[in-house]
Amino acid sequence: MDTRWNTFYGKSAPGGGGGARERGGDGDPGSARQGPFSLPHGGLGGGPRGELHLVPLVPGSGGGGGSAVISYRASDGTFFVVQGGGGGGGGGAVHLAARGSLDLSGGKILANGGSGGDGVRSGFGSSVSGPGGGGSGGSILLQATGGILLDCSSLEALGGLPGSAAPKEQKAGAGAGSPGWIRLEAGKEPLPDCGARPDVSTARLLLDAERSAAVSLPFRPGLGPGRAVLAHDLELGPARLLFKDQPPGTEAILLWEGGGESLDRFGGTGPLAGGVADPGGLLEKEWARFAVQILSNAAARQAPAIEAVRLSYRLKP
Fold first, then answer.
1. Which of 6, 117, 205, 259 is 20 to 30 A from 215, alpha carbon to alpha carbon?
2. Domains in the chain: how many in total?
3. Are residues 264 and 155 in the same domain?
4. Domain boundary residue among 190, 205, 220?
């Protein structure tokens, strides 16, 4: 090792932001600095998760932590580790249900993601650990058989701020957390109008709703194990449910899940995750399946009858 360098100038990788309504921000390692070490890759932001109906209700995702850095102290010839900034925590999942009206006038509900930790200077030379990514906003679901009274500004599911790097010569930054989801469902007026806020959706409450789910078998859209080319290579698009019958007070929602190859069984599927309406938002797509969340009317003993699932796709060039 060349001890003329008293620190590892190769920098450290900043963490990516947590994903929720959108993909989390990527970590940016900044511009290269002269020295014997190459520029690292910043952490990728987390994929989107959840959908506007909040079925199922999911909390926010944590941000990725920044990488540590090893520094060399020339005065006594010792090496030591400077820990990276921690990733911010994801916002929580809040569900309030009321029989009658729900009055939150003068109150606030916050499900914001936490901020990522900053990078830390080693104290010797210019070694700095990587900053952490911000956590994504969580989910807020308010349901009332009557009306809902509140000021829309009192609801927040914001993404957490990214951590930053400490030294003046390094402009690296971690990724910001994605905003979360807010859903308001009321059986009667008033139902708040939150204008053009993309994070807030409103709807009439489906009374006596009972949830169930059905899932497809996992399938491989394109490349096989070891990237063996199959007879097709598909890019999946959003799907649409065709109803044979949809009684009042019932609903069905189709969500996509994706995963990688199994680490235990060749040609098998690994853990599937996601739950997004658009499969383009899945981070891992070696395997895919769709899940249909069904809301039945328990009081009327009625459920939606699905005639077909229409999948959209195109062949990759």
1. 205
2. 2
3. no
4. 205
